[in-house]
Amino acid sequence: MLNETKELLKGFYELDDETFKLSEEVMEDIGDQFEEIKKVREYNQYKVLKAMQEARLSDNHFNWTTGYGYNDLGREKIEEIYANVFGAEDALVRPIIVNGTHALSLCIQGIVRPGDEILSVTGLPYDTLQGVIGIREEKGSLKEFGVTYDQVDFLEDGNVDLEGIKKKINEKTKLVMIQRSKGYAWRKSLTINDIKEAIDTVKSVNPNIIVMVDNCYGEFLDTKEPTEVGADVMAGSLIKNPGGGLALTGGYIAGKKELIELISYRLTSPGIGKECGLTFGTTRTVLQGFFMAPYVVSQAVMGAIFCARAFEKLGYDVLPKYNDIRSDIIQVVRLNNADEVIHFCQGVQAAAPVDSYVKPEPWAMPGYESEVIMAAGAFVQGSSIELSADAPIRAPYNVYFQGGVTFDHSKMGTLKAIQHMKKGK
Ligand SMILES: *Cc1c(COP(=O)(O)O)cnc(C)c1O
């Protein structure tokens, strides 16, 4: 580290000697972990580059159309490139998909019909999807349309209950849901191999059951994506991993051609599907973000490892551990009480390039069950590939730390969180 950096950290950024020393020790501990991450990053970078070359991407794809949006060449290129990178037959990548929940909700609604059953094989789905399905009462949920739901919980060791899947599948089961990332839960994230095993199990009982993967936060953590190991369809958010921090908004859905068609009928309308829809000048940033994504994701993962090791050293329980295999960018730190959670998030906020002077407070966010606190000093509102931290204010006081389009910034987030927790005491 340069002396100038040291001065800045101890001066402007107000790190005390103890935190500074901790940071130096953590850097020494985690070096080996970075090597594996760089290898995955390099492969994925070349995979994305290859797809862009194969699609003959050109700057006329950065223009956009008006009105109905027929023949939007940029939109078509984006979807071709996404499908190629994810080893899928087709894709929908649109700014009018407002977030990950919307992308997943479209998938489910495009596929299931009244009388069908949805089976989640990774326990309770992400908070917002509970409302979509009707696990939590919500107007317009699929439950209102006569769609039923069942779930297979994780085994005690954190693995998917493959025998349980076989038992729960029945003649009504139409769609199996797999959530790759832990979301707001203290559980291991599924590796690509775990996902493959679960899919193989489902297909061994009935190959016609459609398997959907919630791939939020998982893109580019591995050399393969769920659609490359048998998932029929998957979805995610562009203000997470695949947007590379540059996409302004949007969601993607990738999978089998016939499913993408069905889903596109919910996105626009039956018969129209994916032929319409404006991109509002977003194609260049979506593509450049996708190009940057493997690198950006590697930075976020390194930042998560730094956070894990730092809090481990401070005596906190963390998930995953700094040297565990990772399948998403999320780092969970189990704090002791609501106060620590609030100070942690305020520290991350204080490290932000945008709104660093703002103090986040807990609030009742739509779609979430308990009050939530979010640190989000991002260039794109709510972007969680940019450095962010959030936590529902409920025991056992887990805080979820993720993102950082550069490792250095993510590291600063951890250091500021530690410093704020100390001051808050
Ligand atoms: C982020 C996320 C979603 C979707 O959330 P949005 O805020 O709607 O994008 C769904 N599932 C998981 C596991 C997630 O992490």
UniProtKB/TrEMBL annotation:
Q: Which GO terms describe its molecular function?
A: transaminase activity
Transmembrane helix among keywords: no
> What SUPFAM superfamilies does the entry give?
PLP-dependent transferases (SSF53383)
The lineage's top-level taxon is: Bacteria
Q: Which of UniProt's keywords are assigned here? A: Aminotransferase, Transferase
Q: Does the keyword Transferase apply?
A: yes
Family matches, as Gene3D superfamilies: Methioning gamme-lyase, C-terminal domain, Type I PLP-dependent aspartate aminotransferase-like (Major domain)
Per its UniProt record, what PANTHER family does this chain match? CYS OR MET METABOLISM PYRIDOXAL-PHOSPHATE-DEPENDENT ENZYME
Q: What protein does this entry describe? A: Aminotransferase class V-fold PLP-dependent enzyme
Look up and give the organism this protein is from.
Answer: Romboutsia weinsteinii
The record lists the lineage as: Bacteria, Bacillati, Bacillota, Clostridia, Peptostreptococcales
